[in-house]
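Lecture notes, part 5. Sequence design as translation. It can be helpful to think of inverse folding as translation between two languages: the language of shapes and the language of residues. The source text, in structure tokens, appears below.
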């Protein structure tokens, strides 16, 4: 009796991704981060709130001029047939 070797079957599939816009998707969230001291605004569904935080933060810290926008956007992936 010979040696039995396991065989593998590989199946290549095409996947795609896109932003999740389904009704039950998580919301898109926004925040801003000060690049000088790393302080971060509260996260909000409305971009105006982090933007207002930046204006308050730079008013309290006149030398802080650089900020990062942080966007958390839900995505979904599925196999294309």
């Amino acid at each position: 009796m010979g040696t039995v070797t396991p065989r593998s079957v590989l199946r290549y599939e095409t996947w795609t991704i896109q932003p999740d816009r389904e009704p039950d998707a998580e919301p898109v969230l926004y925040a801003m981060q000060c690049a000088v001291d790393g302080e971060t605004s509260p996260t909000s569904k409305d971009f105006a709130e982090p933007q207002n935080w930046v204006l308050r933060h730079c008013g309290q810290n006149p030398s802080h001029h650089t900020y990062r926008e942080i966007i958390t956007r839900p995505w979904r992936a599925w196999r294309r047939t």
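The translated text above is only one of many valid answers, since several sequences can fold into similar shapes. The radius of gyration is 23 Å.
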